Amino acid sequence: MGQEVSQQSFTRPERERYRQKVRRCLDVFAMMLNDFTFDSDYPMTGLEIELNLVDPDHRPTMCNDEVLEDLGDPYFQLELGRFNLELNVPPRLIAGDGLAQYEQQIAASLRNAGTHARNHDASVLTIGILPTLTTEHTVANNLSTSGRYRILNEEILAARGEQIGLDIRGVERLKVHTDSIAPEAACTSLQFHLQVSPADFAAYWNASQVISALQVAVGANSPFLFGHHLWDETRIALFEQATDTRPDELKAQGVRPRVWFGERWVTSIFDLFEENVRYFPPLLPIMDDEDPLAVVRDGGVPRLAELRLHNGTIYRWNRPVYDIMAGRPHLRVENRVLPAGPTVVDMLANGAFYYGLVRSFAEDDRPIWTQLPFSVAQDNFHAAARRGIAAPAWWPRRGEIRITDLVLELLPRAAAGLDQYGVDPAERDRLLGIIAQRCLLGRNGATWQIQTVRALEQQGLSRPEALRRMVGRYAELQQSNEPVHTWPV
Fold first, then answer.
1. For labelling alongside 240, which of 8, 191, 261, 428 has CA 20 to 30 A away?
2. Please, what is the angle between helix 98-118 and helix 344-362, to 10°?
């Protein structure tokens, strides 16, 4: 979905040809899995961080085009809302001090973006949902000028055939309707990429699904939306609802949503791409000139552009990725469950926990997912989104257990996984120690936001003013790069 889109409408014959081309790409992909050598000798990792642009009053400001032009940095790009940017961090190995190098590089990139944002009376903030957003900010006119977002908005609304409804019941209830997908722009996330071999992909994807609940519980950072206190990680519910192409009748029939946890453990990456083609109609039927079968017969590596674009419009919380680097194809798991922020070191701690634990679980002789019903993994995920660091989970041989207690038990497994990557022990212990302290103290980004707003309201401030002041304090503390569990309320 990173590619630009200039076409504004599609004919029925174009849609039919696109569907045929996607299926041809799927057939070629199946052939490649049997016959090609995929790049996986030295598994690379990657990060994407979605950002908010805020004005001096800590409210969203619509200037991403101007900031991006000033930046001139190819690793930044537009995101859905005019108050969003995305940082695509160059991939690297995490062996040795790779995680520390990530931290330094991200911090430098964010400082640079902040410098250029100040030229437009703005600053950069990493947070799961910007608490000062209102429904007046998330309207169609505030979608980014990029053509792909405008046409995606039109296609989702056309598929749905009616307004999009948001109905999120948490500590408070939010119920609104919108005539665009702009509320999705409120969701700013942290995404981890992990390169894996075809033979190992299913194990790593299944393991990612299992631990998603643990990630969300300890990393929650999105308790407020449009002035309402909802879930600890409201971003999960918002994203699932804001891009839902199904009217109520199709939901009642069990039609699958495009923002999807999934419905089963898989045995191959092909299972996921085949589900994409079988269950989901194309949203952006943009054709490429490539004949993928001819490319393979000529000894080349096909782009499979249609299959990849279609995959980019199905928002699995753990998404399969086919890509090409330096002429060699590779596969990745894209882990999309976490919010951005609070600090760079917090995000790297989340990364260390994910990369370490997913490797440890994926290489188990008796995989955890063989002992856990898929529906229970999904229930764990949504329970973690609702209750954050206080959430319970159901776990094999343990029954119901607090996720913080479970994470503390599993941290040695995460450490062992990082050891297998060759991560420096001091760096391993520093980052996993942050996860441990969050669990011991019961503090993450969501709890800090909630406690701070509660304290300000007890001083007599209105909810909007309490949120604004909380965001101002959050922005100050974020600059320190001290872990969120150490932040004072």
1. 8
2. 140
